[in-house]
Predict the structure.
Amino acid sequence: MSAITNHMPTAELQALDAAHHMHPFTAGNELGEKGARVITRARGVTLTDSDGNEILDAMAGLWCVNIGYGRGELADVAARQMRELPYYNTFFQTTHVPAVALSTKLAELAPRDLNHVFFAGSGSEANDTNIRMVRTYWAMKGKPDKSIIISRKNAYHGSSVGSGSLGGMSYMHEQGGLPIPDVHHINQPHWWAEGGDMSREEFGLARARELEEAIEQLGENRVAAFIAEPIQGAGGVVIPPETYWPEIQRICDKYEILLIADEVICGFGRTGNWFGSQTVDIRPDIMTIAKGLSSGYAPIGGSIVRDEIADVIGSGEFNHGYTYSGHPVAAAVALENLRILEEEKIVEHVRDVAAPHLEKTWGTLADHPLVGEARSVGLMGTIALTPDSERRAAFAGDSGAVGYICRERCFANNLIMRHVGDRMIISPPLVIRPEEIDTLVSRAAKALDETYDEIRKQGIFKAA
Ligand code: PXG
């Protein structure tokens, strides 16, 4: 059976979409005026839209389609599982085969004594679990005052009330009464934008030490945990200086603060190891997972938890869970995804083939007159657009105006690349081949040329 290809004309779909479908992070009036891009099919790293355009998806959907599109094995597994047992829950001392198999597999893949999995339906839900779990852990150890979670500005940890509070996006806090109490944000290790005259190394240490200052100021007896992504994704692929993470680990150890690594983007091969924590060499107490866990073929997330924390939490009843925690179809799909990642050596492909090739070719974009830096780790890439790379200057106009133009030029060249402010970012499917990386980089270069021409024409190629 093939996918549904027979659909209404694009304009009709767009009109109905604008009339009835409320989109995340999209201004409603823009939808009405321009219409949404309708994606109908996908294979490998390539999307097809309702007008038949073939687009290279350099974002892997939303950082999640790690094994690429169109893997029929996952569809087969889902159909088989739906026939066998479409749903059962994992509450009140019940379980089912997919949840058993997936938690066992994750315990095997995760480093050290991260051997226990609490399932959720998404990364947001998993981070909400983490908030309640770390606070409950300390309360059960007789330290109920340890409830503050330290996070970072410009972090993204989800969109629910809890996870959105952990996140450091001020424009999200402005809507809906966030953050919840006892969440504290420190600065991010974003040297390009905020490093001033410091070297990368000095700046990395200075930003890590803000954690120590915050703990001392808030009181060690009040702080439960620190949460961070090994490499910030949605914040603009912020690759921290080498000095940052070792110092953070030292501080967490010294004050016995739990370290939560949000692996929702970095996990499952994105950085060239199974987990981003291995790439930056840290020892988290909890890892948040989602996205690449199922390559986005089914919604599933979770928290992978160390033995000691699971023992403490398990010594009583944790009054927490979701109807779809460990959903059998999603779990079976995730398990099949992990089989493919492992058997086809996709993480090794990232580490040994794709990431070195991307680093070399993506790096050449740094020579473009609009680009200040072009960096990548694994298959996460970032470029800073700037009118003056020497000074690492921002543009004079609104932040993000140039990035938006560049994103539109990417679309016009059949490339999906995101902008975060005036930073362009990529996170392609992990199965991308070297020749596809060449296509990606040459389309990006063309989009940069067109952006450069456009902003000079508009007279906005000016430093702040
Ligand atoms: N943690 C991290 C690090 C994420 O990137 C979440 C948690 C939340 O996961 P769910 O499954 O609840 O969405 C995310 C999600 C973007 C973008 O614009 C990024 C995410 C989601 C939507 C958009 O880059 N990341």
